[in-house]
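Design a sequence for this backbone.
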C-alpha cells in the first residue's frame, strides 16, 4: 500500500493515518500474501481512501468476514461518512446488515432498478405490514412491475 500511496502523492503521515483507520498499522510490514481475508478487505478500503474519494462503491463487502469484522466494517463506514463526508454505494444481499447503515435503498431485479426509497420509509412500511426487510424484498421480486407506495 505504501508504494501506491506514495505514487498517488500521499505523505508518510497520511499513509500512517490510513493504516490506522483501517486497523492495519501493526501489520504494515507483513506480506500481503500472509493477510487474512479480513485484512485484505481492510487493505482494499485503505487503498480506496488514498485519493480522498467522495464516493466509494462496495460489492458484497462483508463476504468472508467474521462477526467482529462485520461490526468493524459497519463502524468504519458510519465513521467515514460522518467525519470525512464520504458516501458509500453498497451492493449486498444481506439486507439486515444494510439496514444498520443505509440511508437509502435501491432494489434491482434483472439489472433494472425497480424501487428506491429511504431507510425510514422502508422501516415504517415493514413495521406497518409486520414483515422483515427480506420478506419485503421477496414480495417485491414476485411482482417487480407492480408499483409499490411506501
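Sequence:
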Amino acid at each position: 500500500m505504501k508504494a501506491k500511496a506514495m505514487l498517488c502523492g500521499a505523505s508518510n503521515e497520511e499513509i500512517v493515518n490510513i493504516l490506522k483507520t483501517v486497523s492495519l498499522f501493526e501489520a504494515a510490514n507483513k506480506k500481503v500474501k500472509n493477510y487474512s481475508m479480513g485484512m485484505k478487505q481492510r487493505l482494499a478500503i485503505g487503498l480506496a481512501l488514498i485519493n480522498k474519494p467522495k464516493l466509494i462503491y462496495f460489492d458484497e463487502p462483508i463476504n468472508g468476514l467474521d462477526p467482529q469484522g462485520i461490526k468493524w466494517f459497519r463502524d468504519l463506514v458510519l465513521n467515514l461518512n460522518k467525519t470525512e463526508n464520504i458516501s458509500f454505494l453498497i451492493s449486498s444481499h444481506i439486507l439486515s446488515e444494510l439496514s444498520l447503515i443505509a440511508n437509502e435503498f435501491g432494489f434491482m431485479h434483472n439489472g433494472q432498478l425497480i424501487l428506491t426509497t429511504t431507510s425510514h420509509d422502508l422501516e415504517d412500511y415493514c413495521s406497518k405490514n409486520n414483515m422483515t426487510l427480506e420478506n419485503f424484498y421477496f414480495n417485491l421480486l414476485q411482482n417487480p412491475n407492480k408499483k409499490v407506495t411506501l
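DSSP finds seven helices and four strands in the chain.
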